[in-house]
Write a structure and sequence with these properties.
Elements lengths: L1 E5 L6 H12 L2 E4 H10 L3 H12 L5 H12 L2 H6 L1 E4 L5 H14 L5 E6 L2 H9 L1 E3 L6 E3 L26 H23 L4 E5 L4 H12 L2
Parallel strand pairs: 1-3, 1-4, 2-3, 4-7
Antiparallel strand pairs: 5-6
Helix pairs in contact: 2-3, 4-6, 7-8
The structure holds adenosine monophosphate.
Adenosine monophosphate binds next to helix 2 and helix 3.
Length: about 220
């Protein structure tokens, strides 16, 4: 199965993508995670992306599309199918994706838009803690780590992502409304779009996503 997940920052795309990956055995292509790992490894791509990411802005389409093209063409993605998490985020990226998938003979099965009010996602993101070592996510209020400041899984120190500060969160939301909302309209016209309420618990959101994928 080939699925695109769209939604504002903090709506739970990463959590839901991980569940789909686990249950359906799909490859997980998370553009933000890829950029962050390139940044940690100080690659050319990471250096290019850093300034945009720190400001809460999108990395330019040509750079992002090239990075995703490389992932889509791997044997793993061909064999397993994929969940695209965080891409496409502009109509230009959506068009480029359509071209790439047509070229690869891998049409999309569904586009899931997880939706929530701005205040809900600001609240969630402002308390978010991330483990830079293993990627686990925690939340000061709703999912605190067992030991303060330490990851439950690998015991590494937790951090607040540079772009999870309130001012940057507001900027990321503005970017979402200006540039990514039109992508949802683009997919609505293709008949692939499924809308899911992201204001519910992760289990409820997942149940709706699974129901929306039923044939
Ligand atoms: P995320 O973890 O998905 O919220 O992404 C973190 C940051 O990476 C974003 O704020 C952007 O700067 C960059 N990024 C991730 N995905 C994309 C994309 N599809 N297009 C442009 N920039 C992206």
């Amino acid at each position: 199965m080939r699925i695109v997940l769209i939604g504002p920052p903090g709506v739970g795309k990463g959590t839901q993508a991980a569940r789909l990956v686990q249950e359906l055995g799909l490859a997980h292509i998370a553009s933000g995670d890829i950029f962050r790992s390139e940044l940690r490894e100080e690659t050319e791509l990471g250096k290019l992306a850093k300034a945009y990411m720190d400001r809460g802005e999108l990395v330019p389409d040509d750079i992002t599309v090239k990075m995703i093209a490389g992932r889509l063409a791997t044997p793993e993605v061909r064999n397993k199918g994929f969940v695209l998490d965080g891409f496409p985020r502009t109509v230009g990226q959506a068009r480029a994706l359509a071209e790439m998938l047509q070229h690869l003979g891998m049409p999309l099965d569904a586009v899931i838009s997880i939706e929530a009010d701005d205040e809900v996602v600001v609240d969630r993101l402002a308390g978010r803690l991330t483990c830079p070592n293993c990627g686990q996510l925690f939340h000061r209020k709703t999912r605190p780590p067992r030991v303060e400041g330490r990851c439950d899984q690998c015991l590494g120190p937790l951090e607040v992502r540079a772009d999870d500060r309130e001012e940057t969160i507001r900027e990321r939301l503005r970017t979402f409304h200006d540039l990514t909302q039109p992508v949802i309209n683009y997919y609505a016209a293709t008949g692939l779009l499924r809308r899911v309420d992201g204001g519910q618990s992760p289990d409820e959101v997942y149940a709706h996503i699974r129901a929306s994928l039923a044939p």
